[in-house]
Design goal:
By secondary structure, the chain is α/β, with parallel strands linked by helices. It has a single domain (23-284), classed as Nitrilase/N-carbamoyl-D-aminoacid amidohydrolase (4-Layer Sandwich), CATH 3.60.110.10. The protein has six helices and 17 strands. The protein has helices at 35-51, 70-73, 84-96, 180-188, 202-220, 269-278, and strands spanning 6-9, 22-28, 56-58, 99-108, 114-121, 127-132, 138-140, 146-148, 159-162, 169-171, 193-195, 223-226, 230-232, 238-240, 244-246, 252-255, 261-267. The chain is globular, with a radius of gyration of 18 Å.
Length: 295
């Protein structure tokens, strides 16, 4: 396994804080080309999640803007300090007293490229962690769809685990799901939940979405939370939806199918301990030895 540096961001809170069952919410979005409208929808989701009793809301990849027309979308791209969607969600989190994992935003860099960056925002509106997508989606699909994220985006350079009310949370984004070495690094660093905000294409979603999310949960005995984009978007693309929560045994606790809106689930840390006591694969991990190729 290629090792990755993992930055663990802790709040200093005692472990007992994470012992209780935690209600979470997932926002399944159909993000469009207008950041102001997208921000208003996110603020409403934050408020509704808090009213529904959630302590932590998860939103999809590209929650602030989804526009594959680069010329049209370029004027709407901002730096982190200037981004109106991030600012609106931070203020909404503080007003509603809820944590938010803002799945990701497209943000300008000083070198002219972009970062696909997610944020964990606490209930006072402070940013507790950020994570830049490590693996970029450069593929040609059998349907004729072609995607080249590396043409615009720079890859991240670190993995991140952060304390939250639901427990230590590892951060991933969409295509990262296909790289189990990242999940191994996150869970070796103590993650008991991994979030996978996404904007999966329909062909890849139908083929692999549920299988991969369940596999990542089973491998380490963790909860996997995946808030997703869904449906036909203003820019013409279609995304798969099916925002879901998988438990440490691989059982699906929530599957939102294709409808936009909120879903709720419970994160029970005792379930992690129960599964790991029955099947302690995470405790049996060993450093991978050199591979001997015999031709």
């Amino acid at each position: 396994m290629r090792s990755r540096p993992v930055r663990a961001l802790t709040s200093g809170a005692p472990a007992a804080q994470f012992a209780a069952v935690t209600r979470i919410a997932l926002y399944q979005a159909r993000t469009g080309i207008d950041p102001a409208r997208n921000a208003a929808a996110l603020v409403a989701a934050v408020e509704d999640a808090a009213r529904g009793g959630a302590r932590l809301l998860f939103t999809p990849e590209m929650s602030g803007l989804l526009d594959r027309d680069r010329m049209r979308g370029a004027p709407n791209l901002r730096t982190e300090a200037e981004d109106e969607v991030l600012d609106a969600v931070r203020k909404a989190a503080a007003r509603s007293g809820i944590w938010v994992h803002l799945g990701s935003l497209a943000l300008r860099r000083d070198d002219g490229r972009l970062n696909n960056r997610g944020f964990v925002i606490d209930s006072s509106g402070e940013i507790r962690a950020s994570y830049d997508k490590l693996h970029l989606f450069d593929v040609d699909l059998p349907t004729g769809e072609s995607w080249r994220e590396s043409a615009s985006y720079a890859p991240g350079e670190r993995a991140v685990v952060v304390d939250t009310p639901a427990g230590p949370l590892g951060l991933a984004i969409c295509y990262d799901l296909r790289f189990p070495d990242l999940f191994r690094a996150l869970t070796d660093a103590g993650a008991r939940i991994v979030s996978v905000p996404a904007a999966f294409t329909v062909p890849t979603g139908k083929a692999h979405w549920h299988i991969l999310l369940r596999a990542r949960a089973i491998e380490a005995g963790i909860f996997v939370v995946a808030a997703a984009q869904s449906g036909r978007h203003e820019d013409g693309r279609e995304t798969y939806g099916h925002s879901l929560v998988a438990d440490p045994w691989g059982e699906i606790l929530l599957d939102m199918a294709e409808e936009e809106g909120l879903g709720f689930a419970e994160i029970d840390p005792a379930r992690i301990d129960e599964v790991r006591s029955r099947l302690p694969a995470i405790d049996h991990r060993r450093p991978l030895p050199p591979v001997e190729f015999l031709g």
